[in-house]
């Protein structure tokens, strides 16, 4: 197991003995525990990869100059919560989250928060 090798290297670097000596002592003391950790890590990996999460999660960022779409993004500085603004995106200021499932497609779980370029025009008037 890689984790065992890393732990032994740390002990050698901490001057706890030579590689072979540290390996023998470590394996004598921790062999059963390391096997248990390995089995639990494998089960966790399987559960996350196959049983619990049946799709891929991905952070969502909207590129600049994208036309604003209220179904897939939130205007951070909108004067009204559901303003029908059709401006262009200046930047993303809060990442969103989407979930992709092969059969069903992509679902937006959390809309990214964006700033529209019209905000610059509004502030330039002051």
Features:
single chain, 126 residues, alpha+beta, 2 domains, three-stranded antiparallel sheet, three-stranded mixed sheet, 3 helices, 6 strands
Descriptive notes:
The protein is an alpha+beta fold and 126 residues long. The chain has two domains: 2-52, no CATH class; 56-124, no CATH class. Helices cover 42% and strands 23% of the residues. The protein contains three helices and six strands, in the order ααββββββα. It has helices at 2-13, 19-52, 118-124; strands spanning 56-60, 74-75, 89-94, 96-101, 105-110, 113-116. The strands form two sheets. Strands 1-4-5 form a three-stranded antiparallel sheet, with no helix packed on it. Strands 2-6-3 form a three-stranded mixed sheet. Strand 4 and strand 5 (105-110) form a beta hairpin. Helix 1 packs antiparallel against helix 2 (19-52). The longest helix is centred in the first third of the chain and has 34 residues, at 19-52. 10% of the residues are buried. The mean pLDDT is 81.
Overall 3D shape: elongated
What's the structural domain tally? 2
Q: Segments where pLDDT lies below 50 for 5+ residues?
A: none
Number of strands: 6
> Strand content of the residues, in percent?
15-25%
Share of helical residues: 40-55%
Largest sheet: 3 strands, antiparallel
The H/E string reads: HHEEEEEEH
Distance between the ends: 64 Å
- Helical run tally: 3
Classification by helices and strands: alpha+beta
Rg, please? Answer: 26 Å
Strand order of the largest sheet: 1-4-5
Average pLDDT rating: 81
Topology:
Layout: H1 2-13, H2 19-52, E1 56-60, E2 74-75, E3 89-94, E4 96-101, E5 105-110, E6 113-116, H3 118-124
Parallel strand pairs: 2-6
Antiparallel strand pairs: 1-4, 3-6, 4-5
């Amino acid at each position: 197991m890689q984790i065992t090798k890393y732990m032994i290297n740390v002990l050698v670097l901490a001057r706890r003995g030579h590689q072979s000596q540290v390996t023998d002592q470590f394996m004598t003391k921790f062999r059963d525990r390391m096997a248990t950790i390995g089995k639990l890590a494998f089960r966790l990996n399987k559960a996350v990869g196959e049983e619990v999460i049946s799709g891929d999660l991905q952070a969502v960022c909207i590129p600049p100059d994208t036309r604003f779409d209220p179904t897939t993004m939130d205007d951070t500085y909108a004067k009204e919560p559901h303003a029908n603004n059709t401006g262009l995106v200046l930047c993303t200021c809060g990442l969103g989250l989407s979930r992709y499932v092969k059969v069903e497609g992509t679902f937006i779980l959390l809309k990214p928060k964006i700033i529209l370029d019209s905000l610059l025009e509004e502030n330039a008037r002051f």
